[in-house]
Each structure stands twice: as C-alpha cells, then as structure tokens.
Design brief:
This protein is of the alpha+beta class. It is built from 5 helices and 8 strands.
C-alpha cells in the first residue's frame, strides 16, 4: 500500500526521524499548541520522536508530514491515531505493525504558522479521509477540538464531519465530531 498521498498542492508522506526540526518548531510554539495542551519542551520532543513516527495497521495509522508539492517544504503534520479517552496523549503502544488499533481513530493536523489560512489543513484532511475510507477498513473517523478552536471546527465541517456533541477525550469533556465511511461515500461517489 502506498502511504505517500498527493493532492493538487500537497504531498503527505509518513513522518520520519529527520522531521524532528519541523516537530520541534511546531510543538514548542505556544500559538500553534494553544488548543493542544500547550507547548512541549524541546527535550521531550527529542525523547519522544521515535514514538511520533510509529505506525500501525500496515502503516495506515500514524502521522504524515504535509509537504508543499511544488518545492518539498514541510508545512506541518496530519494524523490518523487512536483517540485517547482518559489519558492526555496518544497511547503510542496501540500502534502495532499489522493491527488496526482497538477503539476510535481520530484525525488531527498541525501547521507551521506561515502555512495558516491557506487551506492546507482542509486539503490534507480531505486526502487523509479519502485514504482512510478508500484504502483501509476504517468505518468511522472521529475528531475532538477545544471549544474555542473555531478554525479547526471550520476545517472539520468543510471535510464532512458533523458534531456529535460533547464527549470524553484526552481526559476532558470536549466537542466531538465524526464522519462514517457511508457518509463519506455518499458525498464522494
């Protein structure tokens, strides 16, 4: 299965150890991490980078690096990962090479600030959903946001997610969203 995904403007490829600079740039930036638990110290990112590149379900679940298709510049990350319910972070141990993790799979995305407001999150999210529902056995993808994160809400709504009300995730009660493969196929015959 080809895990390199393309759109008109983007290439999504599996995240690599060599992407640590991108991850540090984003995850230490308080503005980028405002709705994701706050900035993470660089030392912790260095220690955990090997977890961030883990993949499960023959590579179908994990983190992709979003790159500008024209010049290869790394713009951010997008992910399909197990949704943590009572923990405050992804349970990376659920990513096992040939198994789809138990429980729900969430979509997520982070962009470097220069890439904000250009539709890249929407484009990457649409492509990741197409991959999820056309190339894997996933029947549903979920998402959660902080209630103040209006930009992320707009992205989710643009790519077909609907509100499911509040739900438990990341040890908190957060606004939840969902899209099923059936709904996706109706909108993308």
């Amino acid at each position: 299965m080809d895990l390199q995904l393309t759109t008109k403007r983007l290439t999504l490829r599996p995240l690599l150890m060599s992407d640590v600079g991108l991850v540090i740039e984003m995850f230490t930036d308080q503005k980028i991490m405002k709705y994701a638990g706050g900035a993470i110290p660089e030392e912790k990112i260095d220690e955990e980078m090997a977890l961030y590149i883990r993949r499960g379900a023959k590579g179908c679940v994990g983190v992709w690096c979003i790159c500008d298709r024209a010049n290869g510049e790394a713009l951010g990350t997008a992910a399909l990962l197990p949704l943590p319910i009572d923990q405050d972070d992804t349970d990376w141990e659920q990513l096992i090479e040939d198994q789809l993790p138990d429980g729900e799979i969430e979509i997520g995305y982070f962009l470097r600030r220069p890439a904000w407001g250009k539709g890249f999150a929407t484009e990457a999210g649409e492509r990741l959903l197409r991959f999820a529902f056309e190339d894997t056995s996933l029947k549903e993808v979920v998402a959660v946001i902080e209630s103040e994160n209006k930009s992320s809400r707009r992205v989710l709504e643009k790519i077909g997610f609907v509100s499911t009300g509040t739900r438990r995730a990341y040890g908190e009660t957060l606004p939840g969203f969902s899209i099923t493969s059936d709904v996706y196929r109706v909108k993308h015959p």
